[in-house]
Write a structure and sequence with these properties.
This protein is an all-alpha fold and 220 residues long. It has seven helices and no strands.
């Protein structure tokens, strides 16, 4: 029963959010390439530097932080409203009367699924962001694909990927736990469910930005 619920939540969180992650990531990388090329006007700096800046910006900040803020709105509000609706309609009380541990059955699979799926979405976002910058550079005539690929390999630090995954796991736990708490303990009716959903998104975004600063200060 728990495994089935866990896989259901992985499907809901991962596949349900894949479309918006793909769209955001591609255009995020494309805009980064165009704006970086716009600012690097001096001929002294080689064009390969554009690829390096896009690569590091996407991996370190855009993919983990921006995508997780979007997921806080998509996934967090869904979790809070789902649990809030079950609490208001007394479904959680019915499960507890049947002897089901509702925190383990309803909350834990959502948190575990977020910890599994959201880092995967961040990895997909980073790959698509770098690819989007490559497409934008090629179509806009800023730099060739050979120059872009050469820039991607120059001065690459594998630790940046590790740091991005640390941020992804931290943000995934914040999104799922804050949203689950807001929805699980909601009281009232439909109006309170909406308020709890909004509060969970706002709190998740604030905590993501605050923890982003702490992780950057501690690990970089």
């Amino acid at each position: 029963m728990y495994w089935k619920e866990f896989m259901h939540q992985c499907s809901e969180i991962g596949i349900g959010s894949l479309g918006i992650v793909v769209i955001i990531s591609i255009f995020m990388g494309a805009v980064s390439a165009l704006q970086t090329a716009y600012q690097l006007t001096t001929p002294i700096i080689p064009k390969e530097t554009i690829a390096q800046i896009v690569r590091d910006t996407v991996i370190l900040e855009f993919s983990p932080t921006l995508v997780c803020i979007v997921l806080a709105g998509v996934v967090g509000s869904k979790i809070a409203s789902e649990l809030g609706n079950m609490r208001v309609s007394e479904q959680i009380d019915a499960l507890e009367i049947m002897g089901v541990n509702t925190k383990t059955y309803l909350v834990l699979p959502k948190i575990l699924a977020s910890l599994v799926v959201i880092p995967m979405l961040v990895i997909i976002s980073a790959v698509l962001g770098v690819w989007g910058g490559r497409l934008a550079g090629q179509f806009a005539g800023i730099l060739s694909t050979t120059q872009y690929d050469r820039g991607l390999l120059e001065n690459f630090m594998p630790y940046n990927v590790t740091f991005a995954l640390i941020k992804a796991y931290t943000f995934a736990f914040l999104i799922s736990s804050v949203s689950s708490y807001s929805g699980y303990y909601v009281e009232g009716g439909a109006l309170e469910i909406g308020r709890a959903s909004t509060k969970s998104v706002v709190a998740s975004c604030i905590l993501i930005l605050f923890s982003d600063y702490l992780l950057a200060a501690l690990l970089l």
